[in-house]
């Protein structure tokens, strides 16, 4: 087994860990924005196909302060002596699509955060690490177009040295022309919706269609509908659908508060509602009511709705939440549902961050049945 | 706009309209492009469609194939690959680039431009 670690958006760590586990990887550690794991060499070429990580690294050195304190550059260089670069590079090449030719060149990039900035300067660490690699190998430094990068990260929690598996972050999808919602979040929304073949999936305020494009590229055997009232946005969405070759996606210009769709016509709704930013509070509530009414109308029984909430919209949703009677026979069985739309049941929440903003994913499921409010 | 899309569109967002389905379809420009046949997908999607509405739509844009007008509930379409390929063709490969959708109850018309139907209403219509 070979050691790797990957970076994720804040809040997506568990989702990313779950995704890499499907390749048979063993998760060794999880920390804010990072997942450490072991992967067999046969699964290594599949790592770069992962969709919920930002970047993946082959682990060269990893030390958590609580276990092994590296408090100076000299100590770090001491630890680096044990590193076999040639064998690491061999493992790294096994994860890549194209083979690099020797002689190899590299570049060190270093980031120091938190209290550690008092002990380490990124410039001096880069220089020392770079010299150490040159001493133990015949690799040359190439700042502009290196064959590989050596990524050093020093935080209050750990020191990691790794080689990124890809030059560009994995989250930068070659098949998406315009990325308006983080692709890793779009992918997480699809996973939470449990997309499977033959499903009808709607994004009622699709904007540039990023969520639908990410979904249709990865789950092509579904039908996708994108609704938006902005024709200009739909033109961009149309380009996204072309770049990801979504042959089953359709765009409709229409209002998500008055959807031009028949009732119970979709199996899942994926959505990043933009309102709340453009509207004031009172309008938000009025709009939200119409929007939820329409979502619950077009959704099939048992259908799922995954919605990304930030800002004032989040509080409007939270105000709607109440505890109701669950589906089971047990009278003590409780569930959380929306007050005005009791058949929309909250199944799961996932707090995450959108850049500097706090946001949350809500996964709702439509269950008419018995569940009544207590 | 694919006929698959037409199959779940309705004009019930217009004030006073009860069902608004199926919308009458007129095409000025129709594009047929080849899409890979995915049998499993068609088999799964067929039971979710309103077959008669689909046939009407196919006829209204002059793509009349020899599709049966109604589907016998006992019809084992899974085993009939030829039928599934025809369904695939009308659902996936035929696209209305420009034309019109019309509300069956009010006659309100909605334009289709560059393959995108514009279903927005004026304020006095909602």
UniProtKB/TrEMBL annotation, chain A:
Annotated catalysed reactions: guanosine(10) in tRNA + S-adenosyl-L-methionine = N(2)-methylguanosine(10) in tRNA + S-adenosyl-L-homocysteine + H(+)
Gene3D superfamilies: 3.30.2130.30, Vaccinia Virus protein VP39
Single GO cellular component term: tRNA methyltransferase complex
Top-rank taxon, per record: Eukaryota
TM ranges: none
Domain annotation THUMP: ranges: 46-165
Subunit details: Part of the heterodimeric TRMT11-TRM112 methyltransferase complex; this complex forms an active tRNA methyltransferase, where TRMT112 acts as an activator of the catalytic subunit TRMT11.
Alphabetical list of PANTHER family matching this protein: THUMP DOMAIN-CONTAINING, THUMP DOMAIN-CONTAINING PROTEIN 2
Main function: Catalytic subunit of the TRMT11-TRM112 methyltransferase complex, that specifically mediates the S-adenosyl-L-methionine-dependent N(2)-methylation of guanosine nucleotide at position 10 (m2G10) in tRNAs. This is one of the major tRNA (guanine-N(2))-methyltransferases.
Protein name: tRNA (guanine(10)-N(2))-methyltransferase TRMT11
Organism: Darwinula stevensoni
From TrEMBL, chain B:
InterPro entries: Trm112, Trm112-like
SUPFAM superfamilies from the UniProt entry: Trm112p-like
Record's protein name: Multifunctional methyltransferase subunit TRM112-like protein
Transmembrane feature ranges: none
GO terms, biological process: rRNA (guanine-N7)-methylation; tRNA methylation
Record-stated family: Belongs to the TRM112 family.
Recorded GO MF terms: protein heterodimerization activity
């Amino acid at each position: 087994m070979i050691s790797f670690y990957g970076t994720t958006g804040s809040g997506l760590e568990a989702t990313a860990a779950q995704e890499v586990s499907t390749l048979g990887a063993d998760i060794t550690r999880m920390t804010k924005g990072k997942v450490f794991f072991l992967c067999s060499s046969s699964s290594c070429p599949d790592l770069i196909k992962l969709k919920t990580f930002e970047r993946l690294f082959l682990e060269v050195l990893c030390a958590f302060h609580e276990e092994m304190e590296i408090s100076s550059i000299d100590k770090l260089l001491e630890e680096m002596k044990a590193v076999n670069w040639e064998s690491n590079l061999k493992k790294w090449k096994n994860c890549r699509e194209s083979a690099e030719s020797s002689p190899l060149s590299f570049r060190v990039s270093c980031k120091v955060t938190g209290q550690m900035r008092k002990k380490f300067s990124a410039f001096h660490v880069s220089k020392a690490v770079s010299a150490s690699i040159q001493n133990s190998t015949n690799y040359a430094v190439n700042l502009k177009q290196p064959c590989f990068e050596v990524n050093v990260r020093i935080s209050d929690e750990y020191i990691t040295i790794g080689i990124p598996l890809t030059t560009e972050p994995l989250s930068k999808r070659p098949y998406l022309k315009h990325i308006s919602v983080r692709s890793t979040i779009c992918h997480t929304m699809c996973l939470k919706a449990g997309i499977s073949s033959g499903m009808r999936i709607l994004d009622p305020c699709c904007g540039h269609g990023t969520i639908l494009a990410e979904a249709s590229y990865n789950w092509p055997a579904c039908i996708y509908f994108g609704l938006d009232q902005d024709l200009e946005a739909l033109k961009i969405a149309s380009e996204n659908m072309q770049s990801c070759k979504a042959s089953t996606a359709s765009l409709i210009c229409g209002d998500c508060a008055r959807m031009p769709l028949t009732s119970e016509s979709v199996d899942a709704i994926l959505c990043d509602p933009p309102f709340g930013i453009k509207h004031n509070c009172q309008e938000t509530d009025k709009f939200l009511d119409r929007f939820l009414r329409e979502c619950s109308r077009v959704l099939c029984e048992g259908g799922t709705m995954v919605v990304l909430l930030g800002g004032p919209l989040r509080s409007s949703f939270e105000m709607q939440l109440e505890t109701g009677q669950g589906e089971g026979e047990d009278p003590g069985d409780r569930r959380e549902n929306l007050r005005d739309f009791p058949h929309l049941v909250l199944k799961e929440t996932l707090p995450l961050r959108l850049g500097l903003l706090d946001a949350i994913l809500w996964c709702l499921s439509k269950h008419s049945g018995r569940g009544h409010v207590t | 706009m694919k006929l698959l899309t037409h199959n779940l569109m309705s004009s019930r967002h217009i004030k006073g309209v009860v069902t608004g389905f199926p919308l009458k379809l007129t095409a000025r420009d129709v594009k047929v492009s080849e899409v890979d046949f995915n049998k499993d997908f068609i088999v799964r999607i067929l039971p979710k469609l309103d077959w008669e509405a689909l046939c009407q739509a196919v006829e209204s844009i002059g793509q009349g194939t020899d599709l049966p007008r109604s589907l016998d509930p006992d019809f084992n379409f899974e085993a009939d690959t030829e039928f599934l390929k025809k369904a695939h063709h009308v659902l996936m490969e035929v696209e209305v680039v420009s034309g019109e959708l019309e509300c069956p109850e009010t006659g309100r018309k909605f334009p289709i431009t560059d393959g995108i139907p514009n279903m927005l209403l004026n304020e006095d219509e909602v």
